[in-house]
Design goal:
Number of strands: 24
Strand content: 15-25%
Mean pLDDT: 78
Structural class: alpha/beta
Distance between the termini: 46 Å
Oligomer: single chain
Strand order of the largest sheet: 3-2-6-7-1-8
Number of helices: 24
Length: 849
């Protein structure tokens, strides 16, 4: 059975109609005869949504007990047993109640998809994990329930359910989204017009990027090379000259005029390296284009106009921005220039902008671009001069005879000219033609192919030798120039690779993307296997080209080791490019090894931390837990003894000892369990808005009466916290402060509001803690100074800080003026109800044990 298909209805905010659209789609499918069931849909009391559930088969929910309350979640086992064709699962980012099989609902959906069941679900844009910081900056509310972006991106179909902010607020005001008692708070807080507009823009842009990825995949699969102007993409051609900054800014202004405009700056380096650029200037231009929201690309190509147009068509660009040529007038004899060529060959679907700048016609300051070695034009001119030159010279000298020596020098001039222009072969041809003409016209016997005077034979031999020598020197110089230029181009690419590493772009996929882009390939993959007989597996792949499972199936494969290879598809690379490609392949292997070493180091660190915790737990059990157990055991044994008749006072004292020992055990075990939950990351706060005076007084129940004083003003704003975690955190702080306070000195627990924060301060007059130990006291199993064993296992403050951070707060230690220690617990002031709080009924307050 294959994997099921996932369809997601994506919305910008609660109430836009995602669930209604999902149920409408379910009714359409049922009418077509599709086996469709409701696995979990929450209508939130909305009558129109509730009506849409009629006529659809609903799978009974699973009831779970948690903290004294009963909650319902999707019964995934029942859905799997039912095996429908399509299952409706609402609220993809929902966090399941502890006790469910999976922590998140999207994990339940993954199980259904793996079983071959198609799933239709809903999610809001603010629940995407990568947008958490952006959404918090817009709305002031941190989303606690999130779903990984990759889960949503893997969906087979994403449909945007859109609604204007004004229409959504009208729905809210009419009571179609929340209960009437929550409408005013929602409209004045989360559902402000600015918030809704920004969230709507996020949703539209995210879906647009997803559509763009679909379009790229389609164009690649169907080999579409024609540009489709569905979105403004502006390619900026850079030469590394100072005019590049002007071009980038101009392109950015053009992109701003169209919605969703994108700027791609590209520098094309010739494989022969003759068109070089300043690495410093390119680095500045790269930083500029990235600051403006664009991307920088580095491509190798011998034909710059063709490479530029291929890149533009490959990214489906709509416009190309080039600078006016910096060449002087006389330099146009070498060709029309890149800008003119690109404009001529761009076609009707690609606009070319030629932008003027201050460097126009000031000279390029770079060598004139040539082809490989001498170039075709120079070779043709060399043959023309080498063959026709001696003939023309023989015609001119037929009327005037200057002597054999002078004639030979003139013919030698033609040979040297052919060598300088065309290299070795035209010079050899010129020497051959010239020697024949000298023999026939100027050496006795004239007009015969023989030489009578032996001295003339030596002269002609010297003539040929000089011509060949000059041609050899010219050809060797051309070869050395080409080799040097090629090495310079390779060093430029390798320095670019090193720069990426220094900038932190060391991800395997990032490096493979650089390989694919630099060499103009369709896809790049790093393949590996365990042994010679094992199948190849893909460690990383980028690009939209055909996937390859073996190196031999690729257009280019570069062995990295016996069991690792870099495979590329798209075209066959020349042999001279493989040397640089080998450097990329070696770097890819290093990046892969580094990533795996980091993963192993992280696992080792987790194991070491676990061992440390286990060792400390054993120490706690052997010392701190033994004392109260021994006391309880002794008291109980005494009470059960028949040899002694205890008075009522003695019995009361023994019972009090038992109670004290049990309280100490309860406190120690509670802290150990809390620390274990914090270490394993299983603390899931249930955030709600609450007044401090509802929580803090209950935190004082574990200390003797009169040992703590409260100062909580009634004017304090509400805080967004988990009440149970906050109570436990404050209780630990107060108990610790009372433990170290002098007799008769009450601990002060006060609160105050500062900007968007609320501070709870627990002040004691004890011995205090030095500055260098203020952070250490929050570590697990740390007890400051000469605290006796009965003082606990050193977990109270560690648990307090862990719970504080779990609810989005901070906990720090400060000196109390006049002596002592002050614990400062900083909490977030509530900015209004979040969508989750308004959508879901408030759960019972968590009681931490």
């Amino acid at each position: 059975m294959g994997r099921g298909k996932l369809r997601i209805y994506l919305g910008a905010a609660p109430g836009v109609g995602k669930t209604y659209a999902m149920l409408s789609e379910a009714h359409r499918r049922v009418e077509r005869g599709t086996d469709c069931v409701v696995a979990f849909v929450e209508h939130h009391g909305r009558s129109r949504t509730e009506v849409m559930l009629h006529g659809l088969e609903q799978i009974p929910r699973r009831e779970l007990e948690y903290r004294g309350g009963v909650f319902t979640e999707m019964d995934i086992d029942a859905v799997l047993r039912r095996t429908p064709a399509v299952a409706l699962v609402d609220e993809l980012a929902h966090t399941n109640v502890p006790g469910a099989r999976n922590a998140k609902r999207w994990q339940d959906v993954e199980e259904l998809l793996a079983a071959g069941i198609d799933v239709i679900t809903t999610v809001n844009i603010q629940h995407l994990e990568s947008l958490g910081d952006v959404v918090e900056a817009i709305t002031g509310v941190r989303q606690q329930e999130t779903v990984p972006d990759e889960v949503v991106r893997r969906a087979d179909q994403i449909e945007l359910v859109d609604m204007s902010p004004q229409a959504l607020r009208r729905r809210m005001a009419h009571g179609n989204i929340y209960r009437p008692d929550k409408v005013d708070a929602a409209l004045s807080n989360y559902f402000r017009p600015g918030n809704l507009t920004a969230l709507r823009e996020l949703a539209l842009l995210w879906v647009a990027d997803r559509v763009d990825a679909y379009l790229k995949q389609y164009r690649s699969d169907h080999r579409v090379s024609k540009i489709w102007g569905s979105r403004e993409r502006i390619v900026v051609g850079l030469t590394g000259g100072p005019e590049g900054r002007t071009l980038i800014r101009r392109a950015a202004r053009l992109a701003e005029k169209g919605a969703g405009g994108e700027v791609l700056a590209v520098y094309i380096a010739r494989s022969d390296g003759l068109t070089s650029a300043s690495p410093k200037e390119l680095a500045v231009q790269r930083a500029l284009v990235e600051d403006l929201g664009g991307t920088f690309h580095h491509v190798v190509g011998d034909d710059i106009p063709a490479a530029l147009l291929d890149f533009a068509r490959g990214v489906n660009a709509t416009q190309v921005v080039l600078g006016s040529s910096r060449r002087k007038t006389w330099q146009y004899v070498f060709g029309p220039g890149v800008g003119t060529t690109v404009a001529r060959e761009s076609g009707p679907d690609l606009d070319v902008h030629i932008v003027t700048h201050e460097e126009v016609a000031k000279g390029r300051g770079l060598p004139v671009a040539r082809g490989a070695r001498l170039g075709r034009a120079r070779i043709i001119w060399g043959w023309a001069v080498g063959v026709l030159g001696p003939v023309i010279m023989a015609v001119l000298l037929s009327t005037v005879h200057l002597g054999l020596a002078n004639d030979m020098l003139l013919f030698l001039t033609a040979v040297v000219a052919a060598a300088l222009l065309g290299g070795l072969l035209p010079a050899l041809g010129s020497a051959a033609v010239g020697s024949l003409l000298l023999n026939y016209f100027y050496t006795p016997p004239v007009h015969h192919w023989t030489i009578a005077d032996p001295k003339n034979i030596v002269a002609i031999a010297i003539f040929v030798g000089v011509g060949v020598s000059v041609a050899s020197v010219v050809d060797l110089a051309a070869r050395r120039t080409h080799q040097a230029a090629r090495l310079r181009a390779e060093s430029e690419i390798l320095s670019f690779l090193a720069g990426n590493v220094l900038r932190g772009e060391t991800g395997l996929e990032d490096l493979l993307e650089r390989v694919r882009e630099t060499f103009g390939m369709e896809s790049a993959a790093l393949l590996e296997r365990e042994s010679d007989v094992d199948p190849w597996t893909c460690a990383g792949r980028v690009g939209l080209g055909r996937p390859v499972d073996r190196p031999e199936d690729a257009d280019v494969d570069v062995p990295v080791s016996d069991h690792m290879a870099l495979a590329l598809t798209g075209r066959v690379l020349p042999a001279e490019d493989r040397r640089v490609l080998a450097a990329f392949a070696a770097q890819a292997a290093v990046v892969l090894d580094r990533r795996r070493l980091q993963e192993e180091a992280e696992r080792a660190r987790a194991l070491a931390e676990g061992n440390r915790i286990r060792t400390a737990l054993l120490a706690a059990v052997s010392h701190d837990l033994r004392t109260p157990l021994a006391g309880i055991k002794a008291a109980v044994s005494s009470l059960r003894s028949d040899d002694v008749e205890w008075s009522e006072e003695d019995q009361a004292e023994l019972l009090e000892g038992i109670e004290d020992g049990a309280d100490r055990l309860d406190h120690l075990v509670g802290n150990l369990l809390d620390m274990s939950r914090l270490q394993t990351g299983t603390v899931t706060p249930l955030i709600r808005e609450i007044d401090l005076d509802e929580v803090v007084p209950m935190a004082l129940g574990g200390v003797p009466e009169g040992s703590a004083e409260l100062d909580i003003p009634e004017t304090l704003p509400m805080v967004a916290v988990d009440p149970g975690l906050l109570e436990r955190s404050v209780a630990n702080l107060v108990e610790n402060a009372v433990k170290y306070s002098p007799a008769g000195e009450a601990v002060l627990v006060s609160a105050s509001a500062i900007a968007d924060r609320v501070e709870v301060r627990v002040v004691d007059r004890g011995p205090g803690v030095p500055d260098d130990a203020k952070e250490r006291i929050f570590e697990p199993f740390q007890r400051y100074g000469d605290a006796p064993r009965g003082a606990g296992v050193g977990l109270g403050l560690a648990v307090a800080r862990g719970f504080a951070e779990a609810i989005g707060g901070t906990l720090d230690a400060e000196d109390t003026p006049g002596g002592g220690l002050t614990m400062v617990l900083t909490l977030r002031a509530a900015a209004g109800p979040s969508p989750e709080q308004l959508l879901h009924p408030v759960r019972p307050e968590r009681q931490v044990t």
